[in-house]
From TrEMBL:
Domain Outer membrane protein assembly factor BamE: 96-160
Gene Ontology CC annotations of this record: outer membrane
InterPro entries the record matches: BamE-like (IPR037873), BamE_dom (IPR007450)
Keywords: Membrane, Signal
Top-level taxon in the UniProt lineage: Bacteria
TM regions (residue ranges): none
Recorded name of the encoding gene: bamE
Protein name: Outer membrane protein assembly factor BamE
Keyword field contains Lyase: no
Length: 174
């Protein structure tokens, strides 16, 4: 019976982990590069779709604008809302997982309004016994190095009961 080469196995595992981490970072770097290549008032809807692909959702905006949702959950720490004017030209690109937007989430707000504000959550949990649904978004707080979770609890009518931030429990398990 031959003994496996543990050093080689650890080396391969290290390379695999490095590759996965690089791929996750590459996605973020690609987003930043794509955003830098788009110019509000000049770039078109076709330019946005070429850079970002098919949006997760399309929302109606003011004055005939459309808002494209580009979700980077569950592993990312951003969600983008890209506003395209009625004329088909880029108006703005916004990263919506911000503490300023979290402050807009208030008790009584309907789930659809929260989704439109923050984009698709990374995690949804339903608790049948108390009728609550919890939704979580991973984000990067200003000045922090570790991702955090913004969590919203909805009642049985899918209206906000409460919201708050906490450390990412997935990171606590490591």
């Amino acid at each position: 019976m031959t003994r496996p080469n543990t050093r080689s196995a650890w080396w391969r595992l290290g390379r695999l982990i490095t590759g996965v981490l690089a791929a996750v970072g590459f996605v973020g770097a690609c987003d930043l590069q794509n955003i830098a290549e788009l110019e509000p008032g000049v770039s078109t809807e076709a330019d946005v779709r070429e850079k970002f692909g098919q949006p997760e959702a399309v929302w109606e905006g003011e004055e005939g604008a459309q808002i494209y949702e580009y979700n980077r959950q569950p592993e990312g720490v951003v969600n983008y809302m890209v506003t395209i004017g009625a004329d088909g030209v880029l108006v703005k690109v916004s990263q919506v997982l911000t503490e300023e937007n979290f402050a807009k989430v208030q008790p009584g707000m309907p789930l659809e309004q929260v989704r439109r504000l923050l984009g698709k959550p990374r995690k949804v949990q339903t608790f049948p016994l108390n009728g609550e649904t919890h939704q979580d978004w991973r984000f990067q707080a200003k000045g922090q190095t570790e991702p955090m979770i913004f969590s919203v609890a909805f009642d049985k009518d899918l209206r906000v009961i409460k919201s708050g931030t906490m450390p990412d429990p997935d990171l606590q398990k490591r």
